[in-house]
Design brief:
By secondary structure, this protein is an alpha/beta fold. The protein has nine helices and seven strands; from the N terminus they run ααααβαβαββαβααββ.
């Protein structure tokens, strides 16, 4: 029992980066200090400190030490993937490798590839993914590559199944986020299943939900449905903002 407790655990990080807490907190404290001679600066000080408190609370809710909402949201993807588990699977925007590893464990006959841009403000890396896969005992069947979701480095119809979790809206340089869905489907074999979870119900990003489904169907996809996962009972009210979990949904179907 002692040895088990000492076993290394995977590090899947947190979707709320620490910079989202520390940066507004630092700015708020600077304004608070300046508010002593300039009282009006107490207003922006309060705003930035409230922003820091919100993201700190959201980080807690996402974490295993809090409500573990991050794990539960990610867990919505696999049940909607109608796949026999044989062949090649791609996880677009794999982050810390959590979903790729989860699916490798669920489908022991599958070879899983995770791709991500990493770098920048994210606290993930290819090395973190590889280490997590090793700890979870699936390193022989999971590979991680660096690349962009906007231009996947794979030939047409390479994969038997494709998934993605809360990635497309984060991809910069792509005005129409629907094009990222089209690119993901490009590398999926005809007849293969897909499950993508993102802020699909945020109209400012994806437009009307029915128009989104219609667009995907127009690309020759045989089956597609949009599932509202933002109403999941485990999501706290504090995370219901549009840019958090308040507009998440799943596009699932078969090419």
């Amino acid at each position: 029992m002692v040895e088990q407790d000492r076993a290394e655990k995977p590090d899947y990080g947190n979707w709320v980066a620490t910079r989202l807490v520390y940066v507004p907190a630092a700015i708020g404290l600077i304004f608070a200090g300046l508010a002593v001679p300039f009282p009006l600066l107490a207003i922006p000080a309060a705003i930035f400190l409230l922003i820091a408190l919100y993201f700190a609370y959201a980080r807690y809710l996402f974490s295993p030490q809090g409500r573990n909402v991050q794990n539960q949201i990610r867990g919505l993807v696999a049940p909607h993937l109608d796949w026999n588990g044989e062949g090649q699977l791609l996880d677009i925007g794999c982050g810390s490798g959590a979903l790729a590893i989860e699916l490798a464990k669920k489908y022991p006959r599958a070879q899983v590839t995770g791709i991500d841009h990493w770098g920048g403000s994210w606290e993930y890396s290819r090395e973190v993914c590889a280490r997590n896969a090793e700890i979870e005992g699936v390193s022989g069947r999971v590979a991680f590559e660096q690349g962009s979701a906007a231009a996947l480095p794979f030939a047409d119809e390479t994969f038997d199944a494709v998934v993605s979790n809360l990635t497309f809206h984060e991809v910069g340089g792509v005005k129409d986020k629907k094009e990222l869905i089209r690119e993901a489907l490009r590398v999926l074999k005809k007849g293969g299943p897909f499950t993508f979870q993102d802020l699909f119900l945020w109209k400012q990003v994806y437009g009307e939900p029915q128009d989104l489904v219609r667009a995907v169907k127009s690309w020759g996809v045989s089956e597609v449905e949009l599932i509202n996962t933002s109403e999941s009972s485990f999501i706290p009210a504090a995370l219901k903002l549009p840019f958090m979990a308040g507009t998440i949904g799943i596009l699932a179907g078969r090419k």
